[in-house]
Structures are given as C-alpha cells and as structure tokens.
Amino acid sequence: MSSRPGGAMNVFNRNMKRKQKTWAATLPDSEKYDYLRDEVGSRVADRIYDIARTFPLALDMGCGKSHIAEHLSKDVVEQMFLTDISDASLRMERQSEMPTHCMMADEEFLPFQENTFDLVVSSLSLHWINDLPGALRQVHRVLKPDGVFVGAMVGGETLYELRCSLQLAELEREGGFAPHISPYTAVTDLGNLLGQAGFNMLTVDVDEIQVHYPGMFEIMSDLQGMGESNCAWNRKPMLHRDTILAAAAIYKEMYGSEDGFVPATFDILFMIGWKPHESQAKPAKRGSATVSFADLAKIRSQTSINTDKSDTS
Amino acid sequence: MTGRNVWSSSRERMRRFPELFARCSAEAAVYGKCVVSTTSGKQELQKDLCLKEFEALKTCFINAAKQRMK
C-alpha cells in the first residue's frame, strides 16, 4: 500500500476497476446482473423524493448504466449529468424522463466548477474510491450552497459469508489466508467523513439486503458480472481451484438453508448531507436556553416515580 | 474489451462447477462439517486438518467431471 499526498491511501487499482466494469458492461447478458444496482438505485430515488424540492441541475457520479435517473421524474430533477469511469456502461444508459449528459470521468477527479449542482447522487460506486474524504470534499465543492448529496455505498459487513468461507478454506487447504473481499467503510465512520468534508444536517442509515443464491459459484459469477470483482492492490491475483471447491462446501455447511440456497448479505449505507447555507436551521445561540440542564435530572426522577407507581400497582 | 480474455475463460470453466458440485453434496457436507466444527470446538483449524475429507470431495468432483466428458 503506498500513500498519496495528503495522507490519502492508495488501496484500489482504479485502472483495473475500469477494465472490470467495461468487461461486465459488454457481456451479452449484462442486464442480468443489474438487480442490486436497480434496487439500490430506486431506494436512492426514494430518498430524493423525500426532499420537497425541484432540483434544476443534478449529477450522478459513478452512474453505471444510470440506475437512479430512471426512477426520477422531471418534476424532481430537471437536468442531469451522468459520469462513470467506464464508457461502455455509459453507452448502455437507461431511458429517463429528463435530459441527460454523459461524461466519462473518474469519481476521484470531478471535472466540474465550484457551486455547479443543486443535487449530487451516487449509488454503489463510492466503495471503490481510494480517497473517500477527498471525493466527498469534491462533491461538497461542486454543490451549490444549500445543495444536497444523497449517496449509497456497500460497506459494513457486506459479503461476510463469502469472506469467512474463503478464509476457512484457505486456512485448511493452504495454511494461511489473504484478503479476497475488498475492505469496507464502517457505518460509524461515515458521519465523521461527511462532517469533515463540510456537510451538515447529516442522515446516515443502513439497509441490509440479503440475496439467495443456488451456491457460492453463482455468487462469485454474479459479482464478476456486476463488475464488482476485487481490485485492491494487495489482492491475491489467483484463487486456487482446490480452495474454491473447499470454500463452496464450507459456505453451504455454515450458511446454507434447508431448501438448498445460500444467502449473501449486502449492507447498503445510505448518506445524506447538505452544503451549509444561511437559510438552514442552526443550533440555538449559546445561553439562549430557558430551562437549565441541571433540572433535567428532576424531570427524569419525577417521571420515573410515576412509572414506578404504575409498575407496582 | 470484448472477446476472450482471462475473465471469460475462467468464467467458462466455472460455469460447470455448480452441476458437478451438486453431485458431490454428501462429500461436501462431510468436509464442511469437519472445517466448521473447528469454529466452535477447542480444536484449532490447521492446514490439512480435513485432508481426508477434502480428498474424498475432490475425487468425487473429478469423477463427476470425467463422466460429463464421456
């Protein structure tokens, strides 16, 4: 792992990621592997509908085949820029109501001027970014004041079943293990990351999506079809065939259900952050409180007495 | 980027795995139980701890592959 200026890590091979995405987008049956992106894209769109506003200009960074815009109406977003690192994905852009402009651009280097967009969205692409704090700072920069960022990324305990099975299989077959699943952002870090990038009024939540597959081979094949193969620099370039066979057996034994299916868990982290503007609600001025914090204990003891009474009766 | 490369060819090979694997479900369960038992018991997982069980699974897998070829 080499580091970049500013303390940012260089964990992922972005060029490899571009190749994987391009390869996946050119598969003849590539739309078969869009189920997770479609689902999460619609959930991001849901969160945009929750904001009672019309956004004149929006940006989807890392749009893939544009899985968010197709769920939005032109009353919500009037015009949209779509960026992705793979031009092959962009060429397969989905139909949407509003006019869109496609651009091939790396999420790590947004080629837009300061204060350009009213809304920035991103779905399932931030987890392959090396410098996440830097990328969020760039999102903050291209947003207009009072603009909002709505994002979704995989994180947390995503694919823990696959991670555990591969580790046990490698231990037993080869006597040691190497990482095969990419490192993920923890949900507890996300608030800090957004805050440090300058966002306020933050909302962070996690959805757990569990997909059932016939077996481990289908999971691996689908991940590859999504363009979601690992691209970390320190990944082991090859998985031994014996190890795959062993891992499939362990996966089935540890996590398989009685009807023969095995689950794969995706933890989707959703985040919403606003670029500060004077019109937004602020914390009250220091010393403006009319009730002392010292009295809080009294209020609580009063209520607890009341509930105690009701409990004993 | 279309056409054949290392991803397409390994994918081609992987495509047959589920079917072959399904024919060896008994052997897979025995091996799986052997490894999984170490996650709860005192025995620590070491290299080749379940060698015998794995050999049985692999032999079954290879035989299944040979039968397919015929």
TrEMBL record, chain A:
The keyword Ion transport does not apply. CDD domains: AdoMet_MTases (cd02440). It comes from the Eukaryota. One of its GO terms (biological process) is mitochondrial respiratory chain complex I assembly. Keywords: Methyltransferase, Mitochondrion, Oxidoreductase, Transferase, Transit peptide. Residues 59-150 form the Methyltransferase type domain. The keyword tRNA processing does not apply. InterPro entries: Malonyl-ACP_OMT (IPR050602), Methyltransf_11 (IPR013216), SAM-dependent_MTases_sf (IPR029063). One of its GO terms (cellular component) is mitochondrion. It is found in: Mitochondrion. Transmembrane segments: none annotated. One of its GO terms (molecular function) is S-adenosylmethionine-dependent methyltransferase activity. Its main location: mitochondrion. PANTHER family: ARGININE-HYDROXYLASE NDUFAF5, MITOCHONDRIAL. Belongs to the methyltransferase superfamily. This is Arginine-hydroxylase NDUFAF5, mitochondrial. It comes from Silurus meridionalis.
TrEMBL record, chain B:
One of its GO terms (cellular component) is mitochondrion. InterPro entries: NDUFAF8. GO terms for biological process: mitochondrial respiratory chain complex I assembly. PANTHER family: NADH DEHYDROGENASE [UBIQUINONE] 1 ALPHA SUBCOMPLEX ASSEMBLY FACTOR 8 (PTHR34561). This is NADH:ubiquinone oxidoreductase complex assembly factor 8. It comes from Silurus meridionalis.
